[in-house]
Amino acid sequence: DFFREELQSHRKLNDKEKVLIYDTLQYVAMSKRDYHKNHYLLSKLILEQFEVSTVKNHIISKEYYKELSASENDFKLLNEKIILLGFALDGSLSGREKKNIRELNKFKIISQSPEEVKLLVEKFVYGKGLL
């Protein structure tokens, strides 16, 4: 509910940002590789809140990291929270996800190291929130 309220207070997204947020959801799904109902619910919430149209086969932009890195700070922060929440929702953090976090760090998309994200996931699992 807290995240839903935060989403509702966020400004409307422009068309480019809608594609980028769709890319972020796809990025989380590809990083996880396994279906988890919580990821579906997170995606559904975000797609509905920001009125993002879905397509049958969405492919992440080749310039995803650069485009997200160059976006407005409030939008970058929103995507950072989506990524962190998406990584935490199933309660585990794989080696592939740690590698992805290092790549996200390089582009200044998220500020937490893989070790810090692992601690966030553990806090989340034990009901202590995420951020």
Task: Itemize the secondary structure elements and their pairings.
Layout: H1 2-9, H2 15-32, H3 37-49, H4 64-69, H5 73-88, H6 95-106, H7 114-125
Helix pairs in contact: 2-3, 2-5, 5-7
H/E series, N to C? HHHHHHH
Note poorly predicted spans.
none
Number of strands: 0
The overall average pLDDT, rounded, is 88
Whole-number radius of gyration? 14 Å
Count of alpha/pi helices: 7
Shape: globular
Major sheet characteristics: none
Strand content: under 5%
User: What structural category arises from helix and sheet content?
Assistant: mainly alpha
Q: What level of helicity do the residues show?
A: 55-70%
Report, as a whole number of angstroms, the end-to-end distance.
14 Å
Could you please describe the fold and organization of this structure?
By secondary structure, the chain is mainly alpha-helical. Helix content is 65%, strand content 0%. It is globular.
